[in-house]
Amino acid sequence: MSGTVSSPRRRAVASGAPAAGAPVPSAPRIPRPIRLAAHAAALTPVPSGLWRIAIALGWDSGFTDEHLRPENFPGAESFHLIGLSLLAEAVGLLTLGLIHRWGEELPYWVPFLGGRRIPVPAAVIPASTGAALVTLITVSGAFNWNDVDTMGAPGSPEGVHYWVMTACYLPLLAWGPLLAVVTAAYYRRRRRER
What we know:
Keywords: Membrane, Transmembrane, Transmembrane helix
Number of domains: 1
Oligomer: single chain
Strand content: under 5%
Helix content: 40-55%
Region (Disordered): 1-25
Number of helices: 7
Transmembrane segments: 120-143, 163-187
Mean pLDDT: 84
Shape: elongated
Largest sheet: none
Order of helices and strands: HHHHHHH
Number of strands: 0
Radius of gyration: 22 Å
Protein name: Integral membrane protein
Distance between the termini: 37 Å
Organism: Streptomyces filamentosus (Streptomyces roseosporus)
């Protein structure tokens, strides 16, 4: 037979669609609390990101220091604040891979690797490291929030501006622990599949 004729499975793999009559892989069975924890983890960077984007667009955040005072925005520094916000949310959204099929098997459209199973350590090690680092950074930040080098510094927000910023950054304290819970559930689920 000619090399141009391929099996339905090969055509499906090439197109990214399941072959006719082939069983469609079901989504992994994830307990509702783990799904909720994953979505909550993905959303924890949103308030602080929106706060930074508001500053980037010219909102008066209460800062009077030379870098974050309202006269500087919008401006060149706006790209930094918006980029940081988008990066944090993109990293947060990766948590959803721990509860969806694309976190277990690369989609078929991924060049060269599409359709391959993701090794458990390839997901668990970065996720565990991320959970530990985010927890360390946010807890440390919380304990030092009012120090003279941070929110206690001259030119930092006061009054309502202080409380708005604090409320926007507070959800980040949950990010690391939520990610750790979801990562542990992913690990247990994938280990049972072997």
